[in-house]
Design goal:
By secondary structure, the protein is mainly α. The chain has helices at about 1-20, 25-40, 50-65, 75-80, 90-110, 115-120, 130-145, 150-155, 160-165. The mean pLDDT is about 80.
Length: about 170
């Protein structure tokens, strides 16, 4: 099943990148059409972290091949939200782990009899808001920790309103 999902993902990705959409719309289309394919099976198909990283790597290679991402650009900045001066691309690993987390919260909050049995097995989950903040903070910290690429983020003064500074990109 994983092979079918990955081949369909690559096919959708190639079709989107071949289209004549502009950069923002290509990223939006990939997030909604291609990555959604991985999202649908997130609770059913058990993805290993290495497999998801490989799919991310393949995605970045295709983005570079079709001119949507420069090969020397920072990878972590690609996955930050658009309001932080980035593209807003969704990481496959973050997407799948987020859906698994949401499924766990659904099971935990459900009153159905069969789901109560599943709840007794014990699914460990992080709070929804904390999970999203943690994933964005990981990418931001990694980006800012880099010597060259993180210079801009580190040298931006604290008194500047960052949300208003990046609003023109949204």
């Amino acid at each position: 099943m994983k092979n079918k999902v990955t081949t369909e993902y690559k096919r959708r990705l190639r079709l989107i990148l071949k289209s004549k959409l502009n950069g923002k719309n290509k990223i939006q289309a990939i997030n909604t059409r291609a990555i959604a394919l991985l999202r649908y099976g997130a609770g059913i198909i058990h993805w290993k972290v290495a497999e998801l990283k490989q799919i991310d790597r393949t995605t970045r290679k295709k983005l570079t091949t079709y001119g949507a991402f420069h090969r020397k650009s920072d990878i972590d900045q690609l996955y930050l939200k658009g309001k932080h001066g980035s593209r807003g691309f969704i990481s496959n690993k973050t997407c799948v782990r987020s859906e698994e987390n949401n499924l766990g919260w659904h099971v935990r909050a459900s009153n159905e009899m069969l789901l109560k049995v599943v709840k007794k097995v014990g699914i460990i989950n992080i709070d929804r808001k904390d999970f999203k903040k943690n994933s964005q903070n990981e990418f931001r910290d990694s980006w800012q920790g880099k010597k060259m690429n993180g210079q801009f983020a580190c040298e931006m003064p604290e008194e500047i309103d960052k949300d208003l500074s990046w609003q023109w990109l949204v």
